Amino acid sequence: xxxxxxxxxxxSTVLVTLTSNPSHQGVxxxxxxxxxxxxxxxxxxxxxxxxxxxxSKILPIITDIDVILAPLDASLFPGLPSHIRVHSGxxxxxxxxxxxxxxxxxxxxxxxxxxxxxxxGHSLGTTFRSVLFGLPRVGNQAFADYVDANLYITHVxxxxxxxxxxxGMPMCYVHPSGEVHITETGEWAACPVSS
Length: 195
Hints:
Order of helices and strands: HEEEHEEHEEHEEE
Radius of gyration: 16 Å
Number of strands: 10
Shape: globular
Strand order of the largest sheet: 1-2-3-6-7-8-9-10
Helix content: 25-40%
C-alpha cells in the first residue's frame, strides 16, 4: 500500500472503530480534549484518537496559546534527556489524561493480543500522540531529535491548515521528521527537512 492508501484506511476505520469496538473513552471534554481507545480488527491495532481544538470552548484555546517551552515531567517520561522542552499547554493536557490512556491501551492490547498501536489526531489532538494530521510544532530541537531517533511518525499537513506552522520557529519550536504536505493539486509530497 502507498502511504496515502494507508492513511485513507486508517481515517476510514477510526469512526467505525470508535462506534463498534470502543474500549474506553475519555470524559470531560470541557477541561481537556476527548480521547478514545478502540481496536480495529482489520488492522490488528489499538487506535488512540484525540479530539482537535474545539473553538467553541475557551479552555482548548487557552491550551493552544500556552506556548511557553517547559521541561517534561520525569515521572511521566522517565529517562528522557532533561534538555527536552515542549509546549506547556499541551504538556499539561497530556499529564491530565496520560495514566488513563496508558491503562486503556494496555488493557485493549491484552484483550485483543496485539502489539500495534496507531495514534490518530488533528490539531491539538495530534500533540499527544504514528499518523497525525495538522500537527502543530510541539517542542524544541531536542524534542524533535528524540522523536526522530525513537519513533516512526508521519504527520500530514494540508496546505490550507495554519496549525502546523504554530508555534513559530522563532520561538524555538520545530517539527520532527516525517512531514507530508497535501498540495493544492491533492498530491502528497514528503517534506525533505525538519521544520
